[in-house]
Amino acid sequence: MDPIRAVKGTYDILPEKTASWHRIESVVNDVMHRFGYYEIRTPLFEETGLFARSIGEDTDIVGKEMYTFRDLGDRSLTLRPEGTASVVRAFIEHRLDQQGLPQKLWYMGPMFRQERPQKGRQRQFHQFGVEAIGSPSPALDAEVMLLFDTIAGELGLDDRRFLINCLGGAESRTAYRSALVAYLDTVTDNLCEDCRRRKATNPLRVLDCKVPSCRSALDNPDVPEPVHYLTDDDRSAFENLQTYLSALGIRYALNSRLVRGLDYYTGTVFEMQYAGLGSQSAIMGGGRYDRLVGELGGPDLPAVGFACGIERLILAMETAGTAIAESGLDVFLVDAALKPDQALKYLKTIREQGLAADMDYLGRSMKACMKAAARSGAGYVVIIEPADDMVSVKNLSTSEQRTIPFESFLAEAPLMKNNERK
Ligand code: HAM
Predict the structure, then answer these.
(1) Atom of ligand 1 nearest to the CA of 284
(2) Is the model's pTM score more than 0.85?
(3) C-alpha pair distances (Å), 137 with each of 162, 281, 334
(4) Span 192-204, pLDDT tens digits
(5) With a 6 A CB cut-off, is 129 part of the ligand 1 pocket?
């Protein structure tokens, strides 16, 4: 019988890779705490309508990438394709606005999109992200960008830079939309069928289209740029953000084509791309969404946030040479005395000292045990000798070996801890 394999676009994260995940989780936890963000955990599936209303019917995500199914109660449910909609739903449902503003929330977990799998693009992938709800200040935009910049810096991604753009609020967007539609009217014949429809329903999405004829129709300096249609207020907020980013030493570049693939954005949008990742180079993306909370039935509150793709972050760490390997064991115990009860007791005591320790459970020869010890990454092998309470301790890097009472070994044990875990 053919063995069952993982579903297309899903991957197992094997032990050799989990050290980098642990490192990211611990840096994220620590930085979120330092920035005053609190973790929120929402369900993996929601009513389909939540995503359709927030991400937008005309987006690729809602149009063709969602895992939607009916449950036994004939409800239409969807595995979450992103975190923002769920966090805003929870914020409204639990009246978090009454607990002080802005509410600064963060999350981490799997997301699901039925995209064509390729390097850096999975059908089940993982994000961590933040949503800061309740202030329109560009200082908060700068803070969420600084927060990600800090995490990326602590993970060793030195060669980093944000791309930023500003779509503006309702008034700016209406002006930009008219200018864009006027331009698209001049190239209608070259647009794909979807984009001819989108021109009327949601023209900004045309800028995202991957169809070659649409891309070349838009490869023209005459394509209008959102920043030229901003109201004075929107322009000054965007200028303030840039002043703050410069003051904080955050590297960024303006990119007038950055519109992002979700409909809820209303102001600043940003992404960070990392060189060397191929076509899926965006390790994170986000921006301001000042209308979403109100549109989903909550109070009329502005918000800003981002999400980072953890698989892509790890690819970036591998490119930068900062991905980490599992630290392995400290001690491998070999029961040469053939006294399993004593071996189990010794192992328990060694582990109680805070050392990572294991032993052989297959009755292997001394030679095979030494091989297993080397494979485990242990710095030391401890061999239980037939003489009462005596052990031989072998340092695997120097090959030095001494026979000493188990008590003396325990006194030295703290020094045998692997450096990375001390
Ligand atoms: P997004 O740009 O759709 O934004 O996703 C954010 C990041 O998730 C991307 O930059 C990428 O690193 C990662 N990502 C997305 N799809 C995949 C995939 N199929 N495979 C691997 N990684 C992927 C959002 O999700 C918004 N909710 C961000 C946000 C939060 N905006 C405001 N608040």
Answers:
(1) 10
(2) yes
(3) 19, 29, 63
(4) 999 999 999 999 9
(5) yes
